[in-house]
Amino acid sequence: MSLPPDEDAPLLDALRAGDERAFAALVDKYGPSLLRLAQLYVSSRAVAEEVVQETWLAVLTGIERFEGRSSLKTWLFRILTNKAKTRGQREGRTLPFSSLASDGDEDQTAVAVERFARGGAWATPPRGVPEERLLAGETRARVEQAISALPPNQRAVITLRDVEGLSAEEACNVLGLSETNQRVLLHRARAKVRTALERYLEDA
Amino acid sequence: MSTTATRDLPCQQIVELVTDYLEGAMDAPLLASFEAHLAGCPHCTHYLEQIEATIRVAGTITAEDLVPEFRAGLLEAFHEFRQH
């Protein structure tokens, strides 16, 4: 299997050569995402910033040995989550990533059971999507709010997949999840966020 | 799941399969049942469209810029690293 060339290859080469502008460009490109991800694992923004700083230092230390078998983005996110998890554990915050997708909400269905008739056909069906309203900032804010209300591991998966645009394989690698667990978490996360989106679109 | 068991999927089951569908994680018989259901069910089609809309909107969310002090601190750490 041949991988597509990493879009960051030129920046990576420049960084290897010690170019500060390349470092600044990567910090601006990925720093905000890294900080957001770190905040899923640790208690405060200050600690999250430390984790992000440690991540960049690990990148500088490891860049000579980085062979580009994963994308730079996946590598960065993986270093970050490893460090953030360790830090979170030291703080006594643990995410149950190793247990089978457990969130304490195993019984939840994608859609409330009341919306179906006895045979499983829709009783209260969803409506069509008003495309023009999807572009509104308010819609985005509602979706963002729904994501931040998710249990941490669902939130990590939907953030990597749908917000950051990682592939399933990349998200599994970053979070150390099996393909199946990743999919279960993604399914629950998307279902809940969809419910919030539907509610918002129907209200107005 | 056997082919016979999946021939007539109710809507309630379809919504639980949407992620497997979008992830390409269905075997051929299940995929055929799923797509046949969608073709005849505008409600489940709307559901799928809402999930796709959710994904699209999520993709437009951006993380906040780093605060300038923190960004400056990272660049400083870069300099220190280069000096050692």
Brief summary:
Chain A has 204 residues and is mainly alpha-helical. Chain A is built from 9 helices and no strands. The mean pLDDT of chain A is 90.
Provide the residue-averaged pLDDT of chain A: 90
Work out the strand percent of chain B.
under 5%
**How many extended strands of chain B?**
0
For the record, the CATH class of the largest domain in chain A is Mainly Alpha
Query: How would a textbook summarize the main sheet of chain B?
Result: none
Shape annotation of chain A: elongated
- CATH architecture classification name of chain B: Orthogonal Bundle
Describe it for me?
Chain A is mainly α and 204 residues long. Chain A has two domains: 9-90, Orthogonal Bundle (Rna Polymerase Sigma Factor, Chain: A), CATH 1.10.1740.10; 113-203, Orthogonal Bundle (Arc Repressor Mutant, subunit A). Chain A is 61% helix and 0% strand. Chain A has helices at 9-16, 20-38, 45-62, 72-90, 131-134, 137-148, 152-163, 168-175, 179-203. In chain A, helix 3 (45-62) crosses helix 4. Chain A is elongated. Chain B is 69% helix and 0% strand. In chain B, helix 1 (11-22) runs parallel beside helix 3 (42-58) and helix 2 (28-40) crosses helix 3 (42-58). Chain B is mainly alpha-helical. Chain B has a single domain (4-83), classed as Arc Repressor Mutant, subunit A. Chain B is elongated, with a radius of gyration of 23 Å. Chain B has helices at residues 11-22, 28-40, 42-58, 68-83. At the A-B interface, helix 2, helix 3, helix 6, helix 7 and helix 9 of A face helix 1, helix 3 and helix 4 of B.
List the topology elements.
The complex is a heterodimer of chains A (204) and B (84).
Chain A: H1 9-16, H2 20-38, H3 45-62, H4 72-90, H5 131-134, H6 137-148, H7 152-163, H8 168-175, H9 179-203
Chain B: H1 11-22, H2 28-40, H3 42-58, H4 68-83
